[in-house]
Amino acid sequence: MNILDKIVRDKRLEVDLRKSIIPTSQLEASVLFNREIVSLAQNLRQSNSGIIAEHKRRSPSKSIINHDLNVQDVASGYEKSGVCGMSVLSDGKYFGGSLDDVLVARASCNLPILRKEFIIDEYQILEAKSYGADVILLIAAILSKAEIKQFSEFAKSLKLDVLLEVHNEAELHKSIMPSLDMLGVNNRNLKTFDVSLETSKKLSTKIPDDFVKVSESGIGSVSAIKELKPYGYKGFLIGENFMKTDNPGVSALKFIQNLEA
Hints:
Elements: H1 3-21, H2 24-28, H3 40-46, E1 51-55, E2 58-59, E3 63-64, H4 71-81, E4 85-89, H5 99-108, E5 113-116, H6 122-130, E6 135-139, H7 145-157, E7 161-166, H8 169-175, E8 182-186, H9 198-204, E9 212-216, H10 222-228, E10 233-238, H11 240-243, H12 248-260
Parallel strand pairs: 1-4, 1-10, 4-5, 5-6, 6-7, 7-8, 8-9, 9-10
Antiparallel strand pairs: 2-3
Helix pairs in contact: 4-5, 4-12, 10-12
């Protein structure tokens, strides 16, 4: 059983527990449920930098990244830096995040917020909407084609943006459908944790232009983004690079200034 299998197994238990405690009617009654979303896909299309900055305390591959920062400071810092959107890890067991992090981020900035989560149930999409997220992540490696269709269409019915993440060509082929806004290529091999930008380059020609192309993982330098832009990528998800510093907002600002210099 690889790490992804373990995460999904634990996630099913967690979601079943949450469903037994908080009914969907309570989620739908949230004051944030009917707010108008801010589109990440639209922001990326209009941006020069395309940076999606992440809040992540730890990860299975890197263990602790930064436990000392509060989400409010990170979110307001990212907004001031001029990033296109903010990704917030809400998984607790493996990434040290929570839905409350999404809530605090929402209260602290006007950026589009991506709830970065291992979604295996429509219930989690309702949670994302009720906690103030604008975008959900779907991971092709853990979902069937029917599930991708079901979850993405459900998200669109709630007016949420959908980012679908793939790791290889087989995942990409089963995933392309009109209910997606963005297609993200994760450069990290989930079995070995090795990272290579070649994954994004190789899959770029196979992604139709209707979708905003996003590259994820292993983007720690301005040169990496400059390398990927000619392949049609408009979005670049950066987590550890900013989070491992004392001030992620300032780090993001310097990064964007170097990128646009």
